Amino acid sequence: MRNLKRILTGTAAGVALMASMGAANAETWRYAFEEAITDVQGVYATKFKEEVEANTDHTIQLFPYGTLGESADIMEQTQAGILQFVDQSPGFTGSLIPEAQVFFVPYLLPSDSKELAEFFRTSKAINDMFPKLYAEQGLELLTMFPEGEVVMTTKEEVTEPADLNEVKFRVMTNPLLVESYQAFGATPTPLPWGETYGGLQTNIIQGQENPMFWVESTKMYEVTDHITFTGHNNFTTAVMANKDFYDGLSDADKKAIQDATDVAFEHIVDYQKGLTDSSLEKIKEEKPSMNVKVLSKEERKPFKEAAKQVEERFIEMTGESGKEILDQMKADLEAVSE
Ligand code: 6CS
C-alpha cells in the first residue's frame, strides 16, 4: 500500500485517484431539526457537524425547519432511514414515547441554568432509561438538552389561571401539555409549529408558550402583546440517530458521534448564557409596548397547585414505566440540587 501511495502521488491523476480512494467510505449524512440554523437547535447542529466532519471522513448535510416539513415529518423520515439524524423535542414525541411527556410536568425542572445543565449531564433517567425507550422506536438517543425557560405569550395579560379562561392556547401536539393547559384554565389547542403564527394573527388561538429566543426569532411579539414568566418549565429537546444506521457504524465513527454530541452539548449550554435577556431586549426594541410580567411567588401558587393533577395524569397515562422515569428524574434532580 505504501508503494502504491508513492507511485500514485507522483502524478496529478494519481493524487486525484488517491483522494477518491480515501473517500470510498465517506458518506453524507442527513440531519434535520425543528428550528432555523441560527436558532438553538441550529447552533447545536452546526457544532455537531463541525466536530463530526473534523474527526471522520463523513459530511453532514443540515436541514433546518421548513426544508423537509414539520417535526412529525422529519421524525418519520428518520425512522424510515431517509435521514440519519433528527432533533425532535419531547413536545412532539409524546404519542410515540408517552414517557417523554415527563418533561411537561410543570415545575419539575429547576430554573437555575447551571443546575439544569448538570441534571442533563448526569441524569440516569435521561442517560440510561430514555435511550431504551427510544431504541424501541428505532432511534438511538444521543442527547437531550435545555433550550431556555418557557414563557407564555398572549393577546391579553395573564396573572392568574382565571385570565386563561376562554383563551385558546396553542401547545405542541402532546397529550400532557393539553392536560397542563386545561389545569391552568385555558382551552388547549395542539398544533404543529407552522400553524401558530397564522393562528394568532387570525385570532383562532390567543396564546402560545415557548422559550424567549424563539419568541424573538419567530416574531411572536407581532401577534401577541403580553409575555408572562410563570416559571413552569424549561424547553427540552432531544437529538437522535436512526438506530439501524447507528448500529451499522464502525466503532471509530460511533465514538466520533458520541464525542461530537458531548462537545456540542457544552457549546449549546454556553451559547445560551444571557440568551433570554438579550432576546427580551431585542423584543423591547422592536415593540416597546410589549408587556412583560414576571409572576411573583404568590402569583405562581395557583399554577403550581394545578401542576399536581398534571403529574397524576402523567402517571395514569404512562403507568409503571412512566412512574419509574418520574421517580428517577426526581432522584436525579435531588442529586444535582445538593
Ligand atoms: O413550539 C414549537 O413547536 C417549537 N418550539 C421550539 C423552541 N422549537 C421547535 C418547536 O417546533
UniProtKB/TrEMBL annotation:
<dbReference type="GO" id="GO:0055085">
    <property type="term" value="P:transmembrane transport"/>
</dbReference>
<dbReference type="InterPro" id="IPR018389">
    <property type="entry name" value="DctP_fam"/>
</dbReference>
<feature type="signal peptide">
    <location>
        <begin position="1"/>
        <end position="26"/>
    </location>
</feature>
<keyword id="KW-0732">Signal</keyword>
<comment type="similarity">
    <text>Belongs to the bacterial solute-binding protein 7 family.</text>
</comment>
<dbReference type="GO" id="GO:0042597">
    <property type="term" value="C:periplasmic space"/>
</dbReference>
<dbReference type="InterPro" id="IPR038404">
    <property type="entry name" value="TRAP_DctP_sf"/>
</dbReference>
<dbReference type="Pfam" id="PF03480">
    <property type="entry name" value="DctP"/>
</dbReference>
<keyword id="KW-0574">Periplasm</keyword>
<keyword id="KW-0813">Transport</keyword>
<protein>
    <submittedName>
        <fullName>C4-dicarboxylate ABC transporter</fullName>
    </submittedName>
</protein>
